[in-house]
Amino acid sequence: MSKTSERILFLENVAGVAGDMFSASFVDAGLVAASELQSLVSTLGLSGVEIVFSKVTKALMQVTHMSVEIRDDSWKSVLAHGPAHTHSDAAQSTRFVATQTQGNLITPHMASTHWHTHYKDIDRLLADSKLEAGVKDFSRRVFRAIAEVEASAHGMSVEEIAFHEVGAIDSILDVVCAAYCVAKVGAVRVLATPIKLGRGVVNIEHGTHPVPPPATAKLVVGMPVAQVPAAITRENVELSTPTGVAILKVLAPVFVDGMPSGRVVAQGMGGGTMDLGSYPNVFRVAVLERSSTELPSFTDEV
Prior knowledge:
Layout: E1 2-12, H1 19-28, H2 34-38, H3 40-43, E2 49-58, E3 61-70, E4 82-83, E5 97-98, E6 105-106, E7 115-118, H4 119-127, H5 133-154, E8 162-164, H6 165-185, E9 189-192, E10 195-196, E11 198-199, E12 201-204, E13 207-210, H7 214-219, E14 225-226, E15 237-238, H8 242-251, E16 254-255, E17 263-271, E18 282-294
Parallel strand pairs: 1-9, 5-8, 9-16, 10-14
Antiparallel strand pairs: 1-18, 2-3, 4-7, 5-6, 7-8, 11-15, 12-13, 17-18
């Protein structure tokens, strides 16, 4: 009999999930090099933007943090964009511009001071990019999932959904990096722990909403969630972003309560921006290998 090794990707929602935390955990684990993700900026044809990785401390533990830094506005030329419609534009007075940074939304009366990028322009950028086919497909599916729940939450069509420019470029790179990480690992099975959403309320651009806010609440339908750990003492805290939840939604892991059996070959943590005191604000990834025994194959000829 021969033995084969099964590669398992285990995703742990220690303190929720966000797009930057997801990819940072893979870099921290040594599964993907920071330079590989940084090169995706040019692969997408963007400029004036940089992906930066740094070491940060969360609850006395050193982890990896990922951020998208905008150097200048040259990246805007890649995305079709223009000034958002104002509230006085009767035909567009009900339009909301969605941003995937903590689920915030820009209301029509604020839109005149903001630029925005429509979902269809982001999808075009991804479709026309030089990304590998698997990375491209996964990224487009994530943005489609986000656009659909935003459209449903605000009573709009998917074609009307738009993202604030800064939120758009940040989310694009978060999603593409996550797609690259998943493809690079090439796991046979993907497992994850239930999602931690948060508690209380969150202030977004057009009001105070319960956690999870509308888009995230729609994304987690059909997915298991977990309570906020008692060690997180904040009364109002949003732990998972729409982008992070959408990545898990499209990845469609099997949800489990803890790490499966196997030999751990890599493990790392990606840190979030928020400080949760003595509780680590991290997302953890591990890759395990598990041997399986196969029966020998026999052949005969008559």
